Structure formats: C-alpha cells, structure tokens
Amino acid sequence: MLNKTVSSVILVILLVVSGCAGPETWKNPETLEKKGRGDNVMLSVPFFSQDAYQCGPVSLAEVFNFWGYKVAPQQIAGDIFKAHLKGTLSMDMLLYPRRAGFRASAYKGGMEDIRDKIQKGYPLIVMVDFGFFVIEKNHFMVIVGYNNDGIFAHSGKEKEEFFSYGKLERIWKKTDYWTLLIEP
Description:
By secondary structure, the protein is of the alpha+beta class. 34% of the residues lie in helices and 25% in strands.
C-alpha cells in the first residue's frame, strides 16, 4: 500500500513538472506586426535562448520583457526552477507573475483562443508534451504568432519556430491544453 502511495505521489509530481518544458484589453500597437498575406500575425516578443531545463523561466522572462518588465531568465530561475526535478512546476508558472504584479490565469486553451489572444496583442505560454506513450517530456513555450497553417513559438533555442496546427494539437492535448495568460 505504501508503495502505491509513493508511486502516486511521484506520478503527480511528474505530471506537474516541466521537463524542458473580459474588459477591453490593453495592447501596445508597436508590438503587433503583420507579416505576409491574409491572416498572418506576429507579435514582437523578445527571445532568450534556453539553457537545459529552463523553459519555464525563459518563457516567463520573454513575456515579462514583452510587457516592459525587464528581467533575465536566470533571475526568474533562481526563484522558481527546481533543479532536483529538472524543471519548473506549472503552479509556480502561475504564481510567479502574480507576485511580480501581473494578472495571470492558467486555463484550458484552444486554437481559436490562440488566434484571438495573439490578434489582441497577448502572447501565450503553453505547456506541451514532446514525450511518447507514458513517458512525458513537458515543455513551456511562448506562442508569438500564427498564420493559416499553424503557430509560431519561441521554443528552446528556436525563435519563432513553426508548428502546424496538427502538430500543436498532438503535443498540446497531452497537457489538456494548458495555457497561461499574463496581463499587465
């Protein structure tokens, strides 16, 4: 019985750890940039290349800097990165922006929500799972744009990496479409 309890606790910890990985909205018109034709939208979100297992702090730093709050990923990592877990807890991803004075909400997102938020000038942090079968490889990334074929995200060492809607669906649904919106 104790073995089952320990296994359950470990499973819960693994599920929430990233393995890297209303009213009228305010938007800064200088951060919204149209690229290409039609429905192509890209936000000018600062990019930081990620060190190993630092996707959570890097994602927060990118969004904080987008909103004009200058902070380095290393500073955030010092506060929330869990070295023994090789990642950042999703709860810390929600609470840290609040402690810094932002409004933050974690929710079950969707493709239409991505397009709506980006169009309104809000980058989104999503948690995806690059693992297979029961092996998780959770990863936080910042969605910074979209077009008719997919989304663009700052992910790991890649600035504006393209993910087709099909690929995003496959890796995002495994986290139940975990989404974090940070507002000033």
